[in-house]
Amino acid sequence: MSEQSIGRPGHSRVVGILKVVLPLTALILLSLVFMLARTIDPTAAISNAEIDVEDRARDPRLSGAHFAGVTDDGAALTIITQTARSDPNATMRLEVTGLHLRLEGRDGENLTASATNGTIDRGRGTFDMTGGLELTATPGYDLTAQSMVGLLDSTRVTIPGRVSGTAPAGEITAGSMEMRVDSGDGTGYLLVFGGGVRLNYQPDN
Fold it and tell me: Would you say the pTM of this structure is higher than 0.85?
């Protein structure tokens, strides 16, 4: 009994001291956290952002859109865009920038084209490309034009205006050009130039 009565006062003193010391220690540590914490400037975060968040909120669009399909004659059509956004007046129509198009035929024929702007209309099954159009086509055509239109479900692309560049036989200019399926046998494709075609023949030395 005497040992218990001696131990209790000492135990009580330790508990009393801890009740004072522990809260003070926690308060000091909490103060240090706030004193040493780095102040964050929210305006700096916005200025360093790689994209304009406010602009994206006003004008939502998709980056790096990729469209792929097969035409009814078996050609593989691929369109890659830098940006794409829906037309507010037509939900199935996309306004796109930075277009890259590739059309690969069943027998190895191919056509590639790139342009600054364009549209993809899934409702009508069409696309168009405008601005700095560059086009290559087998066998050995390297052409430039201002615009090109085509179908999404069939191999048919048309340049309605002036086209110029190099052909297998030399330099060529024309008022229009069309690539379509060869209607004779249904296989292979034809490049048809029209509207005052001029060919500067350059024979291979």
Answer: no
